[in-house]
Amino acid sequence: LRTGVATKTAKGLRGVDTGKVTCSFGLAELTPDVSNPAEIMDRADKALYVAKESGRDCVKIWQPNRQPVSA
């Protein structure tokens, strides 16, 4: 998905090229210790912010008690 998006260019409202488009993703695994949907979303959100802080255009996976790792 990331590479597919990276090959596209975006056009603004007036047809002007707005430049390169990239995607960042944060992933979290559904494990037995997850008690509700909000908790897994929070984990994925934390991994997403690490992906954005890492220069964007990457995937990070949430890890318990550690920094999210690259996928």
What keyword list fits this structure?
alpha+beta; 5 strands
Care to give the gist of this entry?
The chain has 71 residues and is an alpha+beta fold.
Mind explaining what this structure looks like?
- The chain is built from two helices and five strands, in the order H-E-E-E-H-E-E.
- The chain has helices at 2-6, 37-53; strands at 9-11, 17-20, 25-27, 59-63, 66-70.
- Helix 2 (37-53) links the parallel strand 3 (25-27) and strand 4.
- By secondary structure, the protein is an alpha+beta fold.
- The mean pLDDT is 84.
- The longest helix is centred in the middle third of the chain and has 17 residues, at 37-53.
Helix content: 25-40%
Shape: elongated
Secondary-structure class: alpha+beta
Distance between the termini: 13 Å
Low-confidence stretches: none
**Rounded average pLDDT:** 84
Total of helices: 2
Strand content: 25-35%
Strand order within the widest sheet?
3-4-5
Order of helices and strands: HEEEHEE
C-alpha Rg, in Å?
15 Å
Count of strand segments? 5
| Major beta sheet summary | 3 strands, mixed
